[in-house]
Design goal:
This protein has about 525 residues and is α/β, with parallel strands linked by helices. The chain contains 20 helices and 15 strands. The strands form two sheets. Strands 2, 7, 8, 9, 10, 11, 12, 13 and 14 form a nine-stranded mixed β-sheet that branches. Strands 6-5-4-1-3-15 form a six-stranded mixed β-sheet, with helices on both faces.
């Protein structure tokens, strides 16, 4: 290959979330919230799409120019292939195996000299190099892999690309104007190595830090805030952000010194979260923490000696909502004790919940154990090997149908009893406001006054929610939330009442559209050109 090689990095092709029995499934939408966390909340589920973060990170840190293609149609992908790239990298999760297979076939057909690289969790599938006609398989961190493949040094000075989450719809209201929230990929992986955790084992049970210091994280937050005009961010990739305490405390100090009021989301284990004063986390700007509860009877050391109910309540008082993730169908789960486990989760009252099946992802110890025990259901297509419909292994107590019904009931109990997550998040902000509006801590006063700027919107959202919740008792929950908000601030005005009616109307239309045509929303196709960073070694 003479001169600089031509490089294309691409996601798999759309559509997603449609039942075509080969390339897609209705329950495989590429939306973290709608497909996993607010799965059964209907119109209350925010509809958010994301860029293919990993591909952008790779492209931004290569010495040579490259192209990133996000969510093309198959014809659009083929048209790009025909341009004659030297390398095409396809990033995918395992559930899109058939799409990856079709794409490799199209590459061989239209550009036979192109070298094909497969990455992402799809690369962990057993015998993937035999299933697909590919040249290279990347398991683990992809920047160094691609740099070495291209003859560049695996050492590099990290450059963060412009990344964001794209909100498409809320309460049925389509965001035509483009609502983008910045995303900072601070690192990768977690050193804890829980037996089921695919990211931890994919990255070799390492805590890989792209942004080494709190100052570097802050600088990137400021840069993206200026680009997107939003101070609400997500710190992603790093599955245990507080594992580097020095970096986290430096970030807190820098944020406080700046006087800025960021609000951001992180992932963290309960043992490390519990080592912080909740006020310290709030002063840093933490707004939501994803905590893996896993289970009441589960043996994971990260949750031992931590009172999760107390911890979540203390976080809520400072305006930090918790996304609580629990696992269904551990081997010790029986029809007698599993609801005790679910009830324990619900009693914690998280802002958002995930109920995932104990899932044997290839490359994890759990997968290896079930394979050795002969319990993997290899007749289930790879497209259905995920944790949000049916288990893919033989459980001693539950059939596949019983398991599916159990998971759905857990999600619905969370929704019906605790209310829509949208309302719960409003209540978190309100509780923090009432608790800290007269605080002697100026940082906390400023934080909750920042929350209060959203109260007019919250009043309209709560008014709309009263028309959209499916049960009378849920309507009373929303009414009480609105009454609390009005008591802490002011009565709902005429304009907010009208806005609530309008939002409720949009929600009813979305419910009708879903009944008639389904609720799949396809991500936009976008192409990005990265110039390369010569001498970045």
């Amino acid at each position: 290959m003479a001169g600089s090689p031509k490089i294309l990095l691409t996601s798999v092709f759309k559509p997603f979330g449609e039942a075509d029995n080969l390339y897609s499934r209705v329950d495989s939408k590429i939306e973290l919230l709608h497909n996993q966390i607010t799965k059964f909340q209907g119109v209350f589920s925010p509809r958010i799409h994301y860029q293919t973060f990993g591909l952008h990170l790779i492209a931004a840190n290569l010495d040579t120019p490259s192209v990133v293609l996000d969510y093309p149609t198959l014809p659009r992908f083929i048209a790009e292939v025909k341009k004659g790239y030297d390398y095409i990298g396809i990033g995918s999760i395992a559930h899109n195996l058939q799409k990856v297979k079709r794409m490799t076939e199209e590459i061989r057909k239209h550009s036979p000299r192109t070298k094909i690289v497969i990455g992402g969790f799809c690369a962990c599938l057993e015998n993937i190099d035999r299933i697909l006609e590919v040249d290279y398989v990347c398991v683990g961190e992809g920047i160094s892999f691609m740099r070495e493949l291209l003859g560049q040094s695996p050492e590099f000075e990290f450059r963060h690309p412009d990344l964001c989450a794209h909100t498409r719809e809320l309460l049925g209201v389509p965001f035509f104007w483009g609502e983008y929230r910045p995303v900072v990929i601070v690192g990768l992986g977690c050193p804890y190595g829980c037996d089921f955790c695919s990211p931890s084992h994919f990255f070799g049970k390492k805590h890989i830090k792209f942004l080494q210091t709190g100052q570097q994280i802050f600088d990137e937050m400021v840069r993206l805030e200026q680009k997107y005009g939003k101070e609400t961010l997500c710190l992603l990739g790093d599955d245990n952000f507080l594992a580097d305490e020095k970096r986290a405390r430096e970030l807190r100090e820098v944020v406080i010194k700046s006087g800025k009021q960021f609000t951001f989301r992180i992932f963290g284990t309960a043992d490390l979260v519990a080592q912080w004063d909740p006020v310290e986390l709030a002063e840093m700007g933490v707004y939501n923490i994803w905590i893996g509860r896993e289970g009441k009877f589960a043996p994971y050391a990260k949750n031992k000696r931590v009172d999760l109910k107390k911890l979540v309540a203390e976080l809520r008082k400072v305006g930090i909502g918790v996304t609580l993730s629990s696992i269904l169908l551990f081997d010790f789960h029986t029809k007698q004790n599993i609801w005790e486990d679910i009830e324990d989760h619900l009693a914690i009252v998280p802002a958002l919940s995930q109920f995932a099946f104990y899932s044997p992802a290839p490359g994890t110890p759990f997968y290896d154990r079930l394979k050795e025990e002969g319990r993997l259901l290899m007749n289930i297509p790879v497209e259905e090997w995920h944790a949000f419909k049916q288990p893919v292994f033989k459980h001693p107590e539950f059939t596949l149908r019983e398991a599916e019904q159990l998971q759905q009931k857990a999600y619905l109990e969370d929704f019906y009893r605790l209310g829509p997550s949208l309302v719960r998040l409003i209540q978190v902000d309100l509780e923090a406001y009432v608790t800290h509006r007269n605080s002697p801590n100026p940082r906390m006063r400023a934080r909750v006054e920042h929350f209060a700027q959203n109260f007019p919107l919250y009043r309209a959202l709560l008014k709309a929610s009263m028309h959209l919740v499916p049960k009378p008792e849920m309507r009373e929950q929303v009414r009480q939330a609105l009454a609390g908000l009005e008591q802490a601030s002011r009565k709902t005005g005429m304009i907010e009442n009208l806005e609530g009616l309008a939002l409720g109307g949009f929600g009813k239309v979305r419910e009708l559209r879903t009944r008639l045509w389904g609720d799949a929303i396809q991500p936009k196709t976008r192409i990005y050109h990265y110039p390369g960073v010569p001498g970045n070694d």
